[in-house]
Amino acid sequence: MVMPLEEILDFARRYDPQPFHVDPVRAAAGPFGGLIASGLHTLAATFGHMLRTGLMEQVSMGGAGMELRWPAPVRPGDEIAVTGRVEELTPSRSKPDRGVARFRYTGTRTSDGAVVLEVLATHILKR
Known about the structure:
Number of strands: 4
CATH architecture of one domain: Roll
Oligomer: single chain
Order of helices and strands: HHHHEEEE
Shape: elongated
CATH class of one domain: Alpha Beta
Largest sheet: 4 strands, antiparallel
């Protein structure tokens, strides 16, 4: 998945209008030395990418929480490779038609291998 400049600006203007997300001049003088994507945008784009794979289409009953980190910034034009791994599966004791799954999603910048997103998400899934 690629993070285009216009999407970065549009998301940030709407949901996270910090100067380093929306203003290239101020971003250049800011802590990241240039414009970067909102971490929330990176999370939303990654989750959307995973959903479009069809992985969860037949089984997802929603989420129950997540732990996340943004260890490196995402810049306009960065290509992010996304992986998902099942960390834990727990059948529900009270509802035999479902269970809880913990997935680890990782976003890695393809140009240099830097991890830009780590998420440990809890999903409720049909069995």
